[in-house]
Design goal:
The chain has 328 residues and is an alpha/beta fold. Helix content is 33%, strand content 29%. It has helices spanning 12-21, 37-47, 55-59, 74-83, 98-111, 125-131, 157-172, 280-294, 302-322; strands spanning 3-8, 27-33, 51-52, 64-67, 87-91, 115-118, 139-145, 177-186, 194-201, 206-212, 219-226, 229-234, 239-245, 254-259, 265-271, 325-326. The strands form two sheets. A ten-stranded mixed beta sheet has the order 14-15-13-12-11-7-10-9-8-16. The radius of gyration is 21 Å and the shape is globular.
């Protein structure tokens, strides 16, 4: 029996979800909810799907609610679906406020449903290729830059872009946050459009992050430094590079010798792991389906989503205390 899926919000990203749901086996798209009449008409014609006038009407027909609406609508839509016992895939961030996120977590536990948060970079093939190597970073450097797009500006660049990297960093660094330093500038909107953040963890790891949605070029890179190794992940170009001390198993890696300050010879190996060509959005939706069918934990849980939000809001609080710079 196929899982019945409905999509809530069919804007730019919502259309990507519709396209991918159509390719996933074991599901049936039963319709969509979209408050904007022009957008809804376009979706009806292009996808031959039924438009539901209210979220409640669509929820009644579903097993799975896919929420791709603006962030300020996440709570009300998630709440309506969870109270009806529906499984929920919700785009990041989990909710608009931490209080809303905490309420959702309590509801999810009570309803015993599956909820996955759309931190899609967890499914980026470049990141997956890097995960095959043992990752234990002690210094992390991140640059996530995007050209300005009015879509998504209902939240700051921290919750819009940087939260992707916060989620990944928190999944890698198994330690509590010790201290956060941050600065941000409002350039085109009323919330920070560019921000620089330094996060110090109790285990000594430090992460420096820069996020901007007003750049001339796009960039999505993460560099991980750990004992005897450097790992570079290019989320945009789908490339991964690993530089480490050579081992016998590194037969396919390019290697060369260096002299250390102590006069020892070390062999360095440079490897470019095979990065499989894949569709990260389709993969995250497919994984959610498998979690429901097999009754297994989701890849990115509501708790993961909350923890990323929690650090994001601490960053925003820090920027607020420092005084947000505005240039418009």
């Amino acid at each position: 029996m196929k899982l019945k899926v409905g999509v809530f919000g069919t804007g730019h990203l919502g259309k990507f979800h519709l396209n991918n749901w159509k390719e996933i086996e074991g599901v049936e798209l039963v319709g969509f909810y979209e408050p904007d009449d022009a957008t809804a008409k376009d979706v009806e014609q292009k996808y031959k799907l039924k438009r539901f006038i209210s979220p409640e009407a669509l929820i009644e027909k579903l097993d799975v609610a896919d929420i791709v609406a603006p962030t300020n609508h996440h709570f009300e839509l998630c709440e309506a679906a969870i109270r009806k016992g529906r499984h929920v895939f919700v785009e990041k961030p989990l909710a608009h406020t931490l209080d809303e996120a905490r309420k959702l977590i309590a509801m999810i536990r009570e309803a015993n449903v599956k909820v996955q948060v759309g931190h899609v970079e967890r499914f980026n093939p470049a990141y997956i290729a890097a995960k095959n190597f043992e990752l234990n970073p002690m210094f992390i450097e991140v640059h996530r830059l995007a050209q300005f797009n009015p879509r998504g500006t209902e939240v700051s660049v921290i919750l819009d872009l940087m939260i992707h990297d916060l989620d990944i960093i928190l999944s890698l660094v198994k330690s509590d946050v010790k201290h956060i330093s941050a600065s941000g500038v409002c350039v085109l909107t009323d919330t920070p459009d560019i921000a620089n953040v330094r996060i110090e963890f109790n285990n000594g790891c430090v992460a420096n992050l820069t996020a901007s949605r007003i750049s001339m070029k796009k960039m999505r890179k993460m560099r991980l430094f750990q004992k005897d190794a450097y790992i570079g992940i290019d989320f945009l170009e789908k490339k991964t590079e690993i530089i480490k001390m050579k081992e016998d198993s590194d037969k396919d890696a390019f290697s060369f010798d260096i002299d250390t300050p102590k006069g020892e010879k070390k062999t360095i190996a440079i490897a470019n792991p095979v990065v499989k060509d894949s569709n990260a959005i389709k993969d995250e939706l497919q994984s959610f389906v498998y979690s429901i069918i097999d009754n297994k934990p989701v890849v990115v849980s509501e708790i993961d989503g909350y923890l990323a939000m929690e650090v994001a809001h601490k960053i925003l609080d820090t920027i607020g205390k420092n005084g947000v710079v505005s240039v418009h």
